[in-house]
Amino acid sequence: MDKFRTEITVDKADELIGYDSRLLFMGSCFASNIGSYFSGNCLNALVNPFGVLYNPFSIATSLERMINHQSFNDEDILLHNGTHHTFYHHSQFNHVDKNKFLDAINTSLMTSTAFLEQADVLVITFGTSWVYQYHALGMVVSNCHKYPARDFTRYRLSVADIVSRYHELLTTIRECNPNLRVIFTVSPVRHWKDGAHGNQLSKATLLLAIEQLIQECYFATYFPSYELLLDDLRDYRFFADDMLHPSDKAVEYIREKFIESQFDADAKSVLAQLSKLIQAAKHRPFNQSSEAHQTFVRNHIKKAEEFQTKYPALELSRIKESFKEQMI
User: Domain GSCFA: where (predicted)?
Assistant: First the structure.
């Protein structure tokens, strides 16, 4: 036998992402894993401005607030276990100081609202179709913030629930930004709370909903993150120690498939060159004051400046600053 796995070939996108494209990633922790690579490599990418969001309704609510420029006020803020939070945000935003918390979430909202209106691509990653509805407010929450389980009703969204909500949402987004393209993915992270069968039912609901949405919305497509791990790699050596999350190597493999199928040739070349610059900026020799290293630093500052001139849409100040910090 020559083949020992079923490798998935991802078709090239009809419209490819350029190095200067504005990319908004929203959804599960897998969205953060993929999106942070692009923001970390100096592309114009914004990742999870509300923090990690797992279910379709919480992602939709966040996008709706962005579209409607609906800022947060004191009535949205709750205090629990000594920290302020909202049921719209991940706990990464939680803060003991109410004013600092409110300022942080509204700053993030304003930034993401402006970004969405000019974005070229919106990547939405669904994690689970299970949701928690908070009794007191009657809303599906993005994070339970360690409230007692009795305060929530837990249920699974239906395909119809998701399609109905997103058909209207995507139509509205396109009215605000007619050039926006949407790429849906399903997180390969397995949610084991309901066991193997329950996880499959949840993922199947998401997949069926996305399939219907991309049939109805010509500007929406699907990228098979879930299938690349579960059907292509299909081996526990590609999972983290908890056997539920993908390993770093698996994330890298899926990301490379994403780049190969979604990015144009110029963008791929830019990413490759940026990777070399970033690795050089991280280099710390034993003798930083040596003439050899100082020459290395000066040469790479020049390379970064030339690269910035050639590709003005990139923001390379962080890389240049990293080199300048090494100058004696």
Answer: 22-258
**Residue for token pair 């402006």:** 114
Token pair for 216: 């109805």
Sign of CA dihedral 114, 120, 125, 131: positive
Q: What's the CATH architecture for 22-263?
A: 3-Layer(aba) Sandwich (3.40)
> In this structure, are residues 31 and 254 in contact, taking their beta carbons and an 8 Å threshold?
no
Q: Would residue 182 be called left, alpha or beta, if left means φ above 0 and alpha means ψ between -120 and 50 degrees?
A: beta
**Segment among 44-53, 156-165, 231-240 with least mean pLDDT:** 231-240
Phi then psi dihedrals of residue 244, to 5 deg: -120, -40
Neighbouring CB atoms inside 10 A of 107's CB total: 11
Length of the chain: 328
pLDDT tens-digit readout, 270-307: 999 999 998 988 888 888 889 988 989 899 999 989 99
Q: Where in the chain is the domain with CATH 3.40.50.1110?
A: 22-263
One DSSP character per residue, 292-311 reads HHHHHHHHHHHHHHHHHHH-
**Residue 41 in contact with residue 271, Cβ under 8 Å?**
yes
Read off the amino acid at residue 271: L
* Ranges 26-30, 127-131, 169-173, 253-257: which has the least confidence: 26-30
Of the candidates 314, 225, 303, the residue with the CA atom closest to the CA atom of residue 262: 225
Phi, psi of 205 (to 5 degrees): -60, -45
Element (H, E) at 85: strand 83-85
Dihedral angle of Cα 55, 58, 62, 65, to the nearest 10 degrees: 150
CA angle 37, 43, 49 (to 5 degrees): 70
Q: Using the predicted structure, report yes or no on whether residue 211 has a pLDDT greater than 50.
A: yes
User: How confident is residue 1, by pLDDT bands cut at 50, 70 and 90?
Assistant: very low
